[in-house]
Design brief:
This protein has a 7-stranded parallel beta sheet, with helices on both faces. Helix 1 packs across helix 8, helix 4 runs parallel beside helix 6 and helix 6 crosses helix 9. Strand 4, helix 4 and strand 5 form a beta-alpha-beta unit. The protein has one domain: 3-Layer(aba) Sandwich (Rossmann fold), CATH 3.40.50. The relative contact order is 0.14. The protein has 9 helices and 7 strands. By secondary structure, the protein is of the alpha/beta class.
Length: about 290
C-alpha cells in the first residue's frame, strides 16, 4: 500500500500549480494531476522528475469546459485511489472575450467554478473516507472587482463583454469559489475534512495567456521581481501540508503571511453561500 500522501491537483501543468506540485513532490507525495492535453502534461512530468526524481505522478485528462469530462475524470480518480489526502482546485482561466461551452455556460464560469465544484463533490465521499484530509480552493482578491453576485443571474449569464469588462466576470467566478469553499467547510464540519480558500496574489503565469502582450509583460515584470508565482505557491503549499492548518477550516487566506481575509459582499453571507450552493447543485444535477 502506498504510504505517501496522495494529493490531487488541478491546473498543475504550469504556473503556481506546477510550482506547488514540485514542492509537494520534494516533501514526498504521490501526485495525481489533471491536464487538458498530453503535451503540457509531459512538460510538467519532466519538470517534476527533474526536481524530485522518482516521485510517483499520475495524470488524468479532462477539459474543464466539458463538464461530462470533469465528472468522468472525478469518478476515475475516486475509483483509482484508496485515499485522497488533499484536493487542490487550482485550474483557472481569465478569458478576454466571451466564449460559451458546449454545455451552455460561460467558459470562465465553467472552468473557474462549475468544474471544481463538480470535481470536489464527486470526490467528496473519498475525501471523507480519507480523513483527516484537506481541500484547498484558489480564489482571488480580483473578486473585489466583481460588482457583487446574483447567483440566479451570474451562473447562467453568457452575454458578451470587452477585454476591460472581463475582469468583472473573472472576479465573479473567484467570488463564487470563495463562497463555495466556505459553504463546503460548513457542510464538512465534524468529518475531519477541512476546506479553505486562498488568494494567491498577482502572479505572472499563463492565466493571462490570451493577451497579445503577455510574453513581453511577463519578461518586464520578472525583471522587476513583480508577480513572482513562487509567492502563490508558498501559500498554496502551506494550506495543503503545513501542520498549522491541519484543523483550520472555512478560511480565506492572503498570499501575504497567510493573513485571514474577509471577502467582499456577499461573500461572507451564509444565506448567499447556501443560495449559490443550491442553484449550482440544481444546474449540475444531470452531470453526477
Amino acid at each position: 500500500m502506498n504510504s505517501l500522501p496522495t494529493i490531487v491537483i488541478t491546473g498543475a501543468t504550469s504556473g503556481i500549480g506546477l510550482l506547488t506540485a514540485i514542492r509537494l513532490a520534494r516533501q514526498g507525495a504521490h501526485l495525481v494531476l489533471t491536464a487538458r492535453n498530453k503535451a503540457k502534461a509531459a512538460m510538467a512530468l519532466a519538470a517534476i522528475e527533474n526536481a524530485a526524481p522518482g516521485t510517483p505522478v499520475d495524470v488524468h485528462y479532462a477539459d474543464f469546459t466539458r463538464l461530462t469530462e470533469v465528472a468522468a475524470v472525478a469518478l476515475e480518480i475516486s475509483a483509482g485511489y484508496p485515499r485522497i489526502d488533499a484536493l487542490v482546485n487550482n485550474a483557472g482561466l481569465h478569458a478576454f472575450e466571451q466564449r460559451v461551452t458546449d454545455d451552455g455556460f460561460a467558459e470562465m464560469v465553467s472552468v473557474n467554478y462549475l468544474a471544481p465544484w463538480l470535481l470536489t463533490n464527486i470526490l467528496r465521499e473519498r475525501l471523507v473516507q480519507s480523513a483527516p484530509s484537506r481541500i484547498v480552493i484558489v480564489g482571488s482578491e480580483a473578486s473585489r472587482r466583481s460588482g457583487g453576485l446574483v447567483p440566479s443571474r451570474d451562473l447562467i449569464e453568457i452575454g458578451k463583454f470587452s477585454s476591460l469588462g472581463s475582469s468583472r466576470v473573472y472576479g465573479k467566478t473567484k467570488l463564487m469559489d470563495i463562497m463555495f469553499s466556505m459553504e463546503l467547510a460548513r457542510q464538512l464540519s465534524g468529518t475531519g475534512v477541512t476546506a479553505n480558500c486562498i488568494d494567491p496574489g498577482f502572479n505572472v503565469t499563463e492565466l493571462g495567456r490570451e493577451l497579445s502582450f503577455a510574453a513581453p509583460l511577463q519578461t518586464i515584470l520578472n525583471w522587476f521581481d513583480i508577480g513572482d508565482p513562487q509567492c502563490g505557491a508558498d501559500i498554496l503549499q502551506k494550506l495543503v501540508s503545513d501542520p498549522h492548518f491541519a484543523e483550520v477550516s472555512g478560511g480565506y487566506f492572503s498570499v501575504k503571511d497567510a493573513k485571514a481575509l474577509i471577502p467582499v459582499a456577499p461573500g461572507a453571507d451564509t444565506e448567499a453561500q447556501r443560495e449559490l450552493w443550491r442553484i449550482t447543485s440544481d444546474l449540475l444535477d444531470g452531470y453526477w
